[in-house]
Write a structure and sequence with these properties.
With 306 residues, the protein is mainly alpha-helical. It is built from twelve helices and no strands. The termini are far apart.
């Protein structure tokens, strides 16, 4: 339960940072994954984006802690559900229009969280060690596949949608999350100070940084093209599925033996996946609305007299 609560709190902090990043990106010049140096200059030269990124990073650290306290099949879906729900709440507060499906998502997420919470009643144990060589192989293959797919799609002149880019970002961030869970396991076993040396001697922090860097480049580009309540759920759900399935296997975590508890766990996980079905139909209109708003904000008013 502590791990579940930490995941939810981390999701709120991450989402606040995400909302700040979105406002910064929608007011900046266009970025592209095919111009990485220009992308870095635009992002790092925007103080508002840097501030939002700092908040998002704090939320990500909180997720690492929660993964050392609760099974990945509990902490990760709770975090993803918390991000999706908080984003929709922020969207409503800021006065943006959301679809009927997104309204339904607001009701689905608390149910998913309740099921995940109830599924921990049998004292679920979190895995703290993994098959490291296999974990490294899974990470390298996943990140290379994400970069290669986006490079080939964009290199042929095709338009890559925000949803597709968000999904690739989710896979890259999911691979980083697996190493975040490895770091969380070291924290749980050795404490903060005792985990420093084992962490530096492991591949976890370095491959976490690689997956995070690739994921953030893809996600920030998708975020500029659409609004966060569209791209973030897609990214989180894809990363969620990948991380829960791969993390449960790689960290040798067992699902609940009790059929009722197992049903609650599977049901909660399944409900977190429904969000992608609820938001995917609004991706095109959200991209069009965002493009129009960015064009109006960036182009000087031509009706003014010279």
């Amino acid at each position: 339960m502590i791990g579940l609560l930490v995941a939810l709190l981390s999701a709120v902090v991450y989402t606040v940072g995400l909302a700040v990043e979105q406002r910064a990106l929608h007011g900046s010049e266009s970025i592209s994954v095919h111009r990485p140096l220009h992308l870095a200059r635009v992002l790092l030269g925007n103080p508002r984006w840097v501030f939002g990124c700092l908040f998002a990073a704090i939320g990500s650290v909180g997720l690492i802690v929660s993964l050392g306290l609760a099974p990945v099949s509990v902490a990760q879906p709770a975090y993803a559900a918390g991000v999706a729900t908080t984003l929709l709440v922020i969207t409503l507060v800021t006065g943006e229009r959301i679809t009927r499906g997104e309204y339904v998502a607001l009701g689905v997420m608390p149910v998913a969280l309740a099921l995940l919470s109830l599924s921990t009643a049998d004292g679920a144990e979190a895995g703290t060690s993994a098959d490291t060589p296999l974990l490294v192989l899974v990470t390298v293959v996943t990140v290379v596949a994400c970069v290669g797919a986006m490079g080939l799609a964009g290199g042929r002149g095709r338009y890559v949608s925000a949803a597709a880019m968000g999904a690739a970002a989710g896979l890259a961030q999911g691979s980083a999350g697996l190493h975040g869970k490895g770091l969380g396991g070291l924290l749980a076993e050795h404490g903060v100070l005792g985990a420093i040396v084992p962490a530096l001697m492991s591949p976890f922090p370095y491959l976490y940084a690689v997956g995070w860097a690739v994921g953030i480049v893809l996600f920030q580009t998708s975020l500029q093209r659409s609004r966060a309540s569209i791209t973030a759920p897609v990214s989180n759900v894809v990363g969620n599925v990948f991380m829960v399935v791969a993390g449960t296997i790689l960290f040798n975590e067992s699902l609940p033996d009790d059929p009722v508890m197992l049903g609650l766990r599977v049901g909660g996980f399944a409900l977190t996946l429904i969000v992608i079905v609820l938001v995917r139909g609004n991706v095109a209109s959200a991209e069009a609305d965002t493009s129009a708003k960015r064009a109006a904000a960036l182009v000087p008013d031509r009706t003014e007299s010279p």
